[in-house]
Amino acid sequence: EVQLVESGGGLVQPGGSLRLSCAASGFTFSSYSMNWVRQAPGKGLEWVSYISSTSSAIYYADSVKGRFTISRDKATNTVYLQMNSLRAEDTAVYYCARQIYFDCWGQGTLVTVSS
Amino acid sequence: EIVLTQSPATLSLSPGERATLSCRASQSISNSLAWFQQKPGQAPRLLIYDASNRATGIPARFSGSGSGTDFTLTISSLEPEDFAVYYCQQRSSWPPLTFGGGTKVEIK
């Protein structure tokens, strides 16, 4: 069974940092690109970042460029999102999703940025 | 950046009725459009990819059509479990990958 499981969310103060993880199983992780997508409370979906299967291509939404870093580890089948300089507007449920087709999603992890 | 505009924002229908949801792109995206369903407290689920192809396990009552700038998701006969929010998403010209604002299908 294809599965994505996010972790690492929580409450953080403005200006703080957090690292999210997404553990993949049930498919050949090294063959698939991955994304992070977020959803602010009561709002729609916003793509955040993309990493290709080999990490050779990485892209970010303008709203997080320079603050967030995506990476992946083929040894542990995990994709990460390092989030620095967090702002209140980064408060959201963060999902990892497979490929630019978004054909598989995790359950999400909530990040709350508040003092 | 390609902007996707979904209409209507809310669709009030009864079980058994036909639902027609629209997604319009700010420029041509060929057939590079997907539709997702999201229920409260759940992650989105892929329904349709490349405008008209049903994803694995998606019932035949869901169909997608369109190309260029105008796309439609049709639910032929609403089941109780179909009341949810639906999003369109384009992968034609990116980054960024973009989503529409969503259409909520609610019980009338």
Number of strands of chain A: 10
N-to-C SSE string of chain A, H for helix and E for strand: EEEEEEEEEE
Low-confidence stretches of chain B: none
Tell me the radius of gyration of chain A: 13 Å
Main sheet: strands, sense, barrel of chain A: 6 strands, mixed
**Backbone structural class of chain A:** mainly beta
Using the alpha-carbon principal axes, give the shape of chain B. globular
Tell me, what's the shape of chain A? Answer: globular
Task: Sketch the topology of chain B as an H/E string, one letter per element.
Answer: EEEEEEEEEEE
Beta-strand content estimate of chain A: over 45%
The average pLDDT of chain B is 97
Report on this model:
The complex is a heterodimer of chains A (115) and B (108). Chain A has 115 residues and is mostly beta strands. Chain A contains no helices and ten strands. Chain A has strands at residues 3-7, 10-12, 18-25, 34-39, 45-51, 58-60, 68-73, 78-83, 92-98, 109-113. In chain A, the strands form two sheets. In chain A, strands 2-10-9-4-5-6 form a six-stranded mixed β-sheet, with no helix packed on it. In chain A, strand 7 (68-73) and strand 8 (78-83) form a beta hairpin. The termini of chain A are far apart. In chain A, 39% of the residues are buried. In chain B, 0% of the residues lie in helices and 49% in strands. The A-B interface holds A 35, 44-47, 50, 59-62, 95, 100-108 and B 34, 36, 38, 42-46, 49, 55, 87, 89, 91, 94-102.
